[in-house]
Amino acid sequence: MSPTKTVAADIRTRNIMAAFRLLFPAARISRSELGRQLGLSRMAANEVTREMLDEHIIREIGEDTRTGRGKRSQVLAIDTAHWRVLSVDLSEPYVLKGAVVDLCGRIVDRTEIPSDDPERADFEDVTALSRQLMDMAGDAPVLGLGLAVPGIVDADGNVIHAVHLGWHDLPARQRLEDALQVPVLVGNATDAALLAERHFGEGSDNSMLIRIGAGVGASLCVNGEIVEGQHYMAGEIGHVVVDPNGPDCACGKRGCVEAYLSTTNLYAQIAADPAARIEILTGAGQMLGRIMAVSLGLLDLGDVALDAPADIAGEAFLNGMRGELSSAMTSHTSHHIPRLHRCQVGSDASLRGQAIAVIHRLVPTIRTRTADGTATH
């Protein structure tokens, strides 16, 4: 391909993705308004939207309702009837969850495989679940599959380390692509949950999600982009030592964040002294506030979402954390702390978020895939 054609194709791809992001997940915008927001001429806007219509990325839903003279412009929305995305979430113990998702990130069908071992996942079960999702998609073309993993994943889709799955240096993306013959995107499950919270919950472009379960981890979004870090370990706070003389942790160290704040530890404390439940959860929130205060002061985020069971991350926990952050971060010159809230997407956060990651990564490839016949049905 000549340099001129390459530049033109790159511009077209950027314009398609910019238009898609304006419409995602559920906006309805007229063709003329879409062109105006993208800074495109009428001809360029028509070319971009025509290609997106031809590839079933968007659809026309009728004329706009503006008053005045002149021809009415067609209103556009994302096409939810054609392409399908598959998503698998391994972040919950005792179950492998799978879903078929449309281009708006909505689940249209789902299934799951139970697991008897909360500390290990059999990759053959992941492959079997993925094949089942392919069958559930029926005749619809599959854009790709996303796999959300509670662990460290590199840019090539290799699972470097996933303690709660028993996986180390596993080429998950390559193995699934070989088995399914569709593009696969493997990512961190907490990053996926933050993506879902941003698009379907209350997350902002500068936000953090802290997940508390059997492990403790976080995800960070700065200026609309998920931060993975130099070694793909951004947000891996669970095994940071906060007290070298603290309780033993499953990782072999003492006094890790996870040893104090995992649901396993908190439930055990509450079971030992039910009358002290509020005090225990308030103290846990205060501890998390102290641990995160420096990082949050450095980053100047708009909000922090807590993704944890409702009986853990309730008002006692949130108020304890909020009070500690206020004490640590406010002064006579600064009165801002991030807004704290529970994750609003629920137990499907990682499932939907990994599907969003696939959608945003692969929508720009639709044109070349349909041209060369590699779109999978």
From TrEMBL:
Pfam family, one: ROK
GO MF, one annotated term: glucokinase activity
Top EC class for this record: transferase
EC number: 2.7.1.2
Keywords, alphabetical: Transferase
Similarity field: Belongs to the ROK (NagC/XylR) family.
Protein name: NagC/XylR-type transciptional regulator
Organism the protein comes from: Bifidobacterium cuniculi
